[in-house]
């Protein structure tokens, strides 16, 4: 079994499922070309150990499903995508139909030929439920020609943890070390971060009320000052010069963030005010393809925690877009959801949310970043080479 990095997309069959269900983590996507040498996973213990690397974080109390697709002329199958479900949603009899519809829609979208399922639960609350739910899952997926190739249960994904086959037909064994799996090493080499838990991702988007309180007194003045400056420059025929200096200031803030120093309250207020200029904001999407993408994400996360409403949505959308393009579906989903929650009318946040939920591949959204490069060029600013 091999994790996919790209594929040619065909039009799948469709199956409606409740949009509000939100039962699955968004599918991580892998931009770029397939690796020259696909990575093989031949043992259930190795597969389970690879789950955190493929998801981008260590799942807890989860049902993790690896979706398989024919590869290399149907001689073998590859892992096309990995999705995570809250275990409560996956085993709750009242929601089982919604859960199966959600998973079925994902499988149809990915043109799956089979799936592998791993139940992760250290509470014992759902002990024994795996067989019933896995059987129901197998029966319903079979209606669409999708086979449940295997299902396992484990208390935690950690080296030495014992897993067992849900159906008892594939025996038991020990989980390999997740930190040294070949897929984890591959992800780290490619610059993808593997977080210790989903909570580490959600913590990055939790509003910092104390910081907000310190930024708030400066925000109104910063917005008014930027608008006055832009209006005066436009009347005098120097609008592009004004915006070029504003863009250069934002880029300097990003570069300085690399030192690890947090931005001061006045700087965060000025940054929020500057990003209200659509030309500057749109240029920032170009950074998602550049060598400063990681540093920019750190600044967007800080700004999202420091501001409410539209300003938070602006920063969270930039962060979500950047994560989306580098294939970090779960974190992109968290950031984009925060943007929509902060401002339900934010057009870019809504667009990104729709794109993520419908499984649009990252490369389909690269045009937005290229647009940012063109705007920067028009302003006479070099935002660096495309690095990914």
Describe this entry's structure for a reader.
- This protein has 388 residues and is α+β, with helices and mostly antiparallel strands.
- It folds into two domains: 44-194, Cytidine Deaminase, domain 2, CATH 3.40.140; 209-378, no CATH class.
- It is built from 15 helices and six strands.
- The chain has helices spanning 44-55, 87-91, 96-109, 129-142, 182-189, 198-203, 209-235, 239-257, 265-275, 278-285, 293-306, 309-325, 329-342, 347-357, 366-378; strands spanning 62-71, 76-86, 114-120, 147-154, 162-165, 172-174.
- Strands 2-1-3-4-5-6 form a six-stranded mixed sheet, sandwiched between helices.
- Helix 8 packs across helix 11 and helix 12 packs antiparallel against helix 13.
- The longest helix is centred in the middle third of the chain and has 27 residues, at 209-235.
Report the strand count: 6
Binned strand content: 5-15%
Order of helices and strands: HEEHHEHEEEHHHHHHHHHHH
Count the domains. Answer: 2
**Tertiary shape:** elongated
Task: Quote the distance from N terminus to C terminus.
Answer: 26 Å
The largest sheet is: 6 strands, mixed
> Number of helical segments?
15
CA-atom Rg in angstroms: 23 Å
Mean pLDDT: 82
Q: Can you list the strand order of the major beta sheet? A: 2-1-3-4-5-6
Q: Structural class from helices and strands?
A: alpha+beta
Unreliable spans are: 1-23, 26-36
Give helix % range. 40-55%
Organism: Nocardia lasii
InterPro entries: DUF4192
Pfam family, one: DUF4192
Region (Disordered): 1-38
């Amino acid at each position: 079994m091999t994790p996919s990095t790209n594929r040619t997309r065909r039009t799948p069959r469709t199956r409606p499922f409740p949009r509000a269900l939100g039962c699955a983590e968004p599918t991580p996507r892998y931009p770029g070309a397939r690796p020259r040498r696909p990575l093989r996973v031949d043992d259930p213990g190795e597969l389970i150990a690879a789950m955190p690397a493929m998801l981008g974080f260590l799942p807890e109390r989860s049902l993790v499903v690896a979706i398989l697709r024919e590869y290399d002329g149907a001689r073998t199958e590859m892992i096309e995508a990995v999705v995570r479900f809250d275990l409560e949603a996956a085993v709750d009899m009242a929601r089982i139909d919604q859960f199966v519809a959600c998973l079925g829609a994902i499988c149809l979208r990915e043109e799956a030929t089979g799936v592998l399922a791993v139940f992760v639960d250290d509470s014992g609350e759902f002990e024994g439920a795996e067989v019933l739910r896995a059987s129901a899952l197998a029966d319903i997926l079979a209606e669409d020609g999708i086979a449940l190739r295997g299902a396992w249960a484990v208390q935690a994904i950690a080296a030495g943890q014992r897993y067992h086959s849900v159906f008892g037909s594939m025996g038991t064994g020990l989980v390999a070390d997740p930190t040294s799996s070949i897929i984890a090493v591959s992800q780290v080499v490619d610059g993808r971060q593997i977080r210790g838990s989903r909570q580490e991702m959600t913590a990055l988007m939790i509003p910092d009320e104390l910081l907000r309180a310190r930024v708030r007194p400066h925000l109104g003045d910063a917005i008014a000052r930027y608008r006055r400056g832009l209006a005066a420059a436009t009347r005098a025929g120097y609008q592009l010069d004004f915006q070029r200096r504003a863009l250069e200031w934002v880029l300097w803030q990003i570069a300085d963030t690399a030192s690890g120093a947090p931005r001061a309250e006045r700087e965060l207020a000025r940054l929020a005010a500057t990003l209200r200029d659509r030309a500057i904001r749109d240029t920032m999407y170009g950074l998602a393809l550049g060598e400063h993408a990681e540093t920019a994400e750190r600044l967007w996360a800080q700004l999202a925690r420091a501001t409410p409403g539209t300003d938070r949505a602006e920063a969270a959308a930039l962060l979500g877009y950047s994560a989306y393009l580098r294939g970090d579906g779960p974190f992109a989903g968290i950031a984009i959801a925060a943007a929509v929650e902060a401002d339900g009318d934010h057009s870019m946040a809504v667009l990104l949310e729709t794109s993520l939920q419908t499984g649009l591949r990252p490369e389909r959204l690269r045009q937005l970043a290229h647009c940012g490069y063109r705007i920067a060029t028009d302003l006479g600013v070099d935002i660096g080479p495309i690095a990914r």
